[in-house]
Every structure is written in structure tokens, then in C-alpha cells.
Amino acid sequence: MIAVAWTANISGEHINPAVSLAMIVTKNIGVALGVANMVAQLAGAAVGSLLLKLVTNNNLEGNLGAHGLRDVSTGEGLLLETILTAFLVLVIYNVDVSNKGWGTNAPIAIGLAVMLIHFVAVPFTGVSVNPARSFGPALIANEWSDFWIYIVGPGNGALAVAVGWTFWKDLGEDSLED
């Protein structure tokens, strides 16, 4: 919630490449700026993971938070990441992008959605729904097992919502919201 609010005037609240991808598809952001956002998001995640490694003096046990599946199959993990990312992006579109959104209160709903997603999925996938969040630890810890799930799942979820949103907008948002 705080990160979304803090970045609102910097990147339009984009701290997730999946969200930026959806915004490009729906033309809420230009391709060049969207790609630049994604590069910055991935670089920021890598720098953050490197700082974590340096601050912990390499004494941090584990893999710096790199994601991995737990007690679910590859297909189940992919489906869960896809569905949960779609949920997050749908919340973002409804509270921030929609003409009837929450305005300056949008970060509250987005933060609560992220919290709910974590309550649901931490035991199964470790929860990504954000390719940058998965990329930083994977790069710095050199831990790539199941990494593709945390890119493809969020990408699929974001694209599904973007296509649906575009179709819905073409029908006429105002007539559907009444």
C-alpha cells in the first residue's frame, strides 16, 4: 500500500511489470514508457536483492526470498499465479484506472488485495504476482528453479484482464456500471 502511494507521482504506481504490461495493452501507458518502467522495476528488484545480500553479510540463510513451489504441481502453481495476478490487476483497474475509481484511496484497496493474495498463496507458491519481485532474488541468489512460472503466470493474468478490460471498455464502461 505504501509503495503504491509513494510511487504514484513517479511511475503512476507501477511497481510490477505485469501491471505495466496490462497498461500497455490497454493503452493507459505508451509502449516506450511501459518498457522503461519494466526495465526499472527489474533493475530495482535486483538492486534491492543485492543490498539485502550485502546488508546481511552473506549470513542470510536460504535464497534471498527466491520463489519456489511448495506442495503444488507446476500446473497448479502456474494457474494460481495467473488467477491471483488477474485478481490484483482487476482490482487496480477498478479502483485506479476506472473513471469511477477510488482516486487517492486506490493504494488502500491495492494494498489490501496484495495482502489477501499473500494470505491465500504463500503456502503454495510463495506468492509472486510480480515478475520483478521474483527476478531480483532469483538473479542475486542464482536460484532459477520454477522461475518461469513467476513470469508466465503474472503475464497471463495481466493479459487476460487487459483483454477483458479493453472489450468491456469497447462496450461502454458507463452503460455497464449503472
Give structural notes.
This protein is mainly α and 178 residues long. Helix content is 71%, strand content 0%. The longest helix has 25 residues, at 31-55.
Compact summary:
The chain is mostly helical and 178 residues long.
CATH superfamily, called what?
Glycerol uptake facilitator protein
Average residue-wise pLDDT? 86
The helix count comes to 8
* Count of spatially separate domains: 1
Helix-strand makeup class: mainly alpha
Measured by DSSP, the beta-strand proportion falls in: under 5%
Global morphology: globular
The main pleated sheet reads as:
none
What is the CATH architecture annotation?
Up-down Bundle
SSE blueprint:
Blueprint: H1 2-11, H2 17-25, H3 31-55, H4 74-97, H5 106-125, H6 131-141, H7 149-171, H8 173-177
Helix pairs in contact: 1-5, 2-3, 2-7, 3-6, 4-5, 4-7
Notable traits:
single chain, 178 residues, mainly alpha, Glycerol uptake facilitator protein, 71% helix
